[in-house]
């Protein structure tokens, strides 16, 4: 099996090389891989750092202008040659070591779509959710996941997780429209509508603060996600 790891990146000069290092150092049993980095019009030194990377496993695609995470992911999917696809954010929130956890059910043929859930737990009020923005983020994600479960008839705890592994053939016959963070509800909606069952495995993350460059806006992007969950349930 071949796994395509798609890395959308925009202005991540402080983390992109470490993310690539972690990916290259992570060993996968019984899996070949390709790493597709999509530089979504970065205006800092990200582009210069990417141009210095030398590895046969890495393919780099450059967008001339910033189009959004969803657009970068779609570019990566269209350029991928793997049997399965997973998205790796370019910050340091998700450690690639957990990709093996998601791969295990696929390799055992127990699942075709696997999500890494961060939220199959109570909020960590002294750790991840100790700041009010992050407790809002926690409950916002749980609410969106509950709505997903109700609308699509399958229980899911973390619809917004960045770690989703799915077969490329699952998206070859559908149109993906997302430009920004609405990619998460769109891909989830369309996978579920095709009849795929989503298996969740627990992972841990190292959430990045807004003062460190976190780009997701809980209220704005959460409202968009809610609208898209309803939209894709009944149209497209």
How many domains? 1
The helix/strand series, from N terminus to C terminus, equals EHEHEHEHEHEHHEH
Number of strands: 7
**How many H/I helices?**
8
Q: What top-tier CATH class fits best?
A: Alpha Beta
Please, could you describe this protein's structure?
By secondary structure, the chain is α/β, with parallel strands linked by helices. It has a single domain, classed as Spore Coat Polysaccharide Biosynthesis Protein SpsA, Chain A (Alpha-Beta Complex), CATH 3.90.550. 38% of the residues lie in helices and 17% in strands. It has eight helices and seven strands, in the order E-H-E-H-E-H-E-H-E-H-E-H-H-E-H. It has helices spanning 16-25, 46-51, 69-79, 99-107, 132-152, 169-172, 183-193, 218-234; strands at residues 2-9, 32-40, 58-63, 84-87, 113-117, 164-167, 198-202. The protein has a seven-stranded mixed β-sheet, with helices on both faces. Helix 2 links the parallel strand 2 (32-40) and strand 3. Helix 5 packs parallel to helix 8 and helix 7 packs parallel to helix 8. It is globular. 38% of the residues are buried. The model has no long low-confidence stretch (mean pLDDT 89).
What is the structure about, briefly put?
The protein has 236 residues and is of the alpha/beta class.
Kindly list the characteristics that best describe this protein:
single chain, 236 residues, alpha/beta, Spore Coat Polysaccharide Biosynthesis Protein SpsA, Chain A, seven-stranded mixed sheet, 7 strands, 17% strand
Secondary structure elements and pairings:
Elements: E1 2-9, H1 16-25, E2 32-40, H2 46-51, E3 58-63, H3 69-79, E4 84-87, H4 99-107, E5 113-117, H5 132-152, E6 164-167, H6 169-172, H7 183-193, E7 198-202, H8 218-234
Parallel strand pairs: 1-2, 1-4, 2-3, 5-7
Antiparallel strand pairs: 4-6, 5-6
Helix pairs in contact: 5-8, 7-8
